[in-house]
Amino acid sequence: MTISIPDLLDNGQAILTLSSDPSVEYSIERIKKSSCAVGCPADVKIKAYLGLIAAGKFKEALELVRQDNPLPGICGRVCTHPCESECNRVDIDEPVAICALKRFIADYELTLDPAERITSAVSADGDKVAVIGSGPAGLTTANDLARMGYKVTVFEKLPVAGGMLTSGIPSYRLPRDIILTEIDSIKALGVDIKLDSPIDQNHTLEDLKKEGFKAIFIATGAYQGKKLGIPGEDDFEGFLDSITFLMNVNIWEKDIPDPCKVIVIGGGNAAIDSARTALRLGCDVHIVYRRSRKEMPANLHEIEDAEKEGIKMHYLASPVKIIGEDDRVVGMECIKNKLGEPDSSGRRRPVPVEGSEFVIDVDLIIPAISQEPDLEWLPQEHGLEISRWNSFVINENTMATNQPGIFAGGDTVTGPQTVIQAIAAGHMAARSMDQYLRGEDLTGIVSEE
Q1: Beta bridge partners of 337
Q2: How high is the pLDDT of residue 255?
Q3: Cα angle vertex 104, ends 102, 108, to 5°?
Q4: CA gap 246, 252 in Å, rounded
Q5: Position with higher pLDDT, 424 vs 28
Q6: Segments of 181-327 assigned E as strands
Q7: Contact (CB, 8 A) for 352 and 340
Q8: How far apart are alpha carbons 290 and 281 in whole angstroms?
Q9: Considering only CA atoms, which of 340, 246, 224 is closest in space to residue 291?
Q10: Global pTM?
């Protein structure tokens, strides 16, 4: 006798068949790719794992998620959940809480005895491969290649693993024990993560090849903050880009002199994270954003929380000049905007309103207007093709650079994007590296995304 669990997203379709005999294994049938799965860059089998959760099969649901997403506890907290935007349930009331359910099954594992937790030791009899950077793209690639049987070593220049997960996202949003748990599950596969081990001009890509690494994946992120480009920016002390600021707090545990008036410039998650972190350090915090609240790219609930916490929001305003005294910033002149026609991003362009200038007193200015890769670690004669945005140029279908055996992906190629997009890049890189190591021709391969 069998029982069918109805699909939670497409009316009436059964995605899971369970035997009434508990000794019989469950089976999953992919009837069709749901709209929510189409919205997920990592192609997680959403319908199937929701069905398992509905059946009370929490451990099995987590095992299934980890086939496509090695960081479920992390994504359950910080993912922008594009899957929910595509959920068919919205035609009835509201999307299924896919992200929260992923967090639930990841947190469920933490309640189990360590011996019951999911471990997947794999026999590593394949070639040696190197991954540079332990952010979500690097971790995903390492996870996938280890499951394929390769000997994977991850080189991380920081004293902790996780990349921007650890250095950029505050612990109140992403607890450090969650990151460590997810990384430990990858290390359990046999992945060796070497901390305080930068690949630079003293230990180069060529050195890795000489050490027997047959393929290399570069996932060094985008840690270089962009400047504002306004008068006074280079004339006074009191500037700290958002990534440096967050890393100082999250990694190096540096403090800010108290009391401190802070202005954060930008409307993305890095801006909100910087502002809420500064607030927790006892600062009086302002956010200046050139468009309206509606156009702000940060997660809506993060914006709402920032407002509730008392951060002063200056919407439709842009910085125009830095004011300083005795070599330090003391104020920032801004101008009010109105919204004009949409620009290339699809958002309405901010247009300055003549005569609307105003000044905000400040001790520390934190620009959070985007980042780009920092490639200073490369030797002068590296031979890799670099774009005008200071990122690696790759074949978009294979993640391969112009140098044989060297692949790149994540923020170091695209600039700052989301965790789930980095995971998707890691999957693609691992597939291509496997094909390369097996001697297959990568020419003409088309991405599965």
Answers
A1: 352
A2: 78
A3: 120
A4: 9
A5: 424
A6: 192-194, 213-218, 224-225, 261-265, 284-288, 312-314, 317-325
A7: no
A8: 25
A9: 340
A10: 0.89
